[in-house]
Amino acid sequence: MSSRITWFNRELIIYIFRSTGWIGFLYLVGLIFALPLKMLAIILKENNEYVEFENLFSCQQMIQFVLVIVIPVLLAIFLFRFLQMKQASDFIHSLPITRRSIYVHMIGTGIGFMGLPILLTGSILILFHSAIDIERLYTMTDIWSWMGTTFILEALIFSVAVLIGMVTGLSAFQGLLTYIFLALPVGLFVLFTANVKFLIAGFSADYYLSANMNGISPLLAATEMEKLTFFSINTLIYSILTFLFLISSLFLYERRKLEHVTQAFAYPKIKPLFKFGLTLCLMLFTGLYFSETTGEPGWIFFGYTVGSLFGYYLGEIVLQKTWRIRVNLKGYVAFIVAIIVLALIIKIDPLQYKSKIPDEKMISQIYIGNSPLFFEDDETSDNASNYLKEKENIEAIRLLHQEIIEKGKKVSIGELNDGQSVFLMYELNNGKRLAREYHLQNYDSYMPLLAKIYESNEYKKMVNELLNVSDEDVSKIKITASGQVDKSITITDGQQLEAAVQALSEDLNNQSFAQMTSSFGDYASIDILLNNNKSIYMNWDSSYTQFSKWLESTGQSEKARLMADDISYILVAKTDSKIYHSNSESELAQQIEQQPNRLKIKTASEIGTAIDNAQIDWGGEYSAAFYYKESRDVDIKSFSGEHVPGFILDHFNVNMS
Description:
Blueprint: H1 2-7, H2 10-34, H3 36-44, H4 61-79, H5 86-93, H6 99-131, H7 140-167, H8 171-196, H9 205-209, H10 218-223, H11 233-255, H12 270-293, H13 297-320, H14 329-348, E1 363-369, H15 391-406, E2 421-428, E3 433-439, H16 447-454, H17 457-463, E4 474-481, E5 488-491, H18 494-510, H19 513-517, E6 524-530, E7 535-540, H20 545-554, H21 557-560, E8 567-574, H22 577-580, H23 585-593, E9 599-601, H24 604-613, E10 622-628, E11 634-639, H25 646-656
Antiparallel strand pairs: 1-2, 2-3, 4-5, 4-6, 6-7, 8-9, 8-10, 10-11
Helix pairs in contact: 2-4, 2-6, 4-6, 4-7, 4-8, 6-7, 7-8, 7-11, 8-12, 12-13, 15-16, 18-20
């Protein structure tokens, strides 16, 4: 008899159903609307043979997402709301039942309120599947996977909300802290990674931030539930964490003092952790904000200072529940000292991160590029062509890496020009990777080493898809003139396709490093359609000499590319700060027109020379506005370096003198 009194209390069960039962019913209704009713509507609809789902998570995904992240938190808040209300707390703890039994009652009913709606919804889907031939919509395996994965994900979120409820005396604060806690791993990782790049040269924040981090947080995992599978490492980890969180919650509940209702935190030792955690997060966030907006070291440190002070002050407001507080600066000073010490340790680099270059014998292959954002890391695709494997290229890249380290180049804070960046990804024989990214302040000094790598046949095949296909793979080539002109040609003849592909391939193989990285003479765009319906896009510029000669020999060049006859005139002016900060091409054109020393180019020969040497971007020494005969639109281009025509130099040199 005593055992029944200890482990099952009728009054407590009634109390739970009255206060929380509506959440389970709401969840059941939501699931029925999201899945069975949706499936029934599809089944009854005519012409439904084209409706397909990747799995059951793909059906009404937004509704399922909201239910998964909201229902468990609501359950935890209302089940343990008695801990935040004195009258309810006194009632529950006056029952002839131990705290452990109360906890088991609450957790058991909470799991039931989550599990039963999932089980009932799954049963309805099973009935549909057995009665109607809807195998194309979902399978039995899909049902069991959906039920198991949904329950595990919700159980984890529920266990976190319960754990938070044990350390706080405010229901609203419990909900807020639950979502913060669930998002905290990803948030801290992003903030820490984005700030470490200021301390360690070569650290590639973009590479680590571009990785898939959805598995780190169940909140992010819930956004892509259609990619989740029941038998996976993530679900195993979630199950273990759920068990650990529930055991920890029981431990805290049995030691919680009942008088801590309406308190922000029931355990005083957690208060410093919350306060300094909030201070750290706001400090990193504001530092990152000023880094991205200004790029100036002074502003970045200003952001660190303001963010840390505000975070510390905000933490005190929450803990003291009033904005009229007396701030204890000793704690803030201790925090700053700890941060400085940690930053110095990272800067000193005891693990020799900055100087580490893999031994040549350990390297399987290497990727080199301007940014990790262009590095394809999809395990489902063949990435072999993204890497360099030849011994000469591996030696050249290691030599480049060594020279960067020896010159002591640091990550340029706020560097925005990816053209001055180098990203290296070493793939080692043991399957591990080593990634480094450098923003070089004197990029030109590395040009000889970079040219040796980029001009190699292996690298050119890696970046130029055309070099990996034969002319027999090409079904059609369409060439569309650049600029505001309506000219294009299409090549379908077999012999002409073969000649065009050979000419383009020869031009790509003959390109220098300078021609590969800077495009001058924007003639036309080339769309190459392959037999497998894939396309290759190329930009025809003045470096494509063989292709230009071949197309001229066919008599189609003038019909396919921008010519001097298409241009009415060109206005050229020295590039200044006003031009750089203009927002549109029309504004740039007005700025150029207003320059008193501008040059107007009207002769066909000079216009042709300007077309051959103009670059698409606006960053050259001289900005140019191209005005067309058959269009009111204006194109803005520029000239720089050795590609500035002599007549432009003569005009501005004479006027300056």
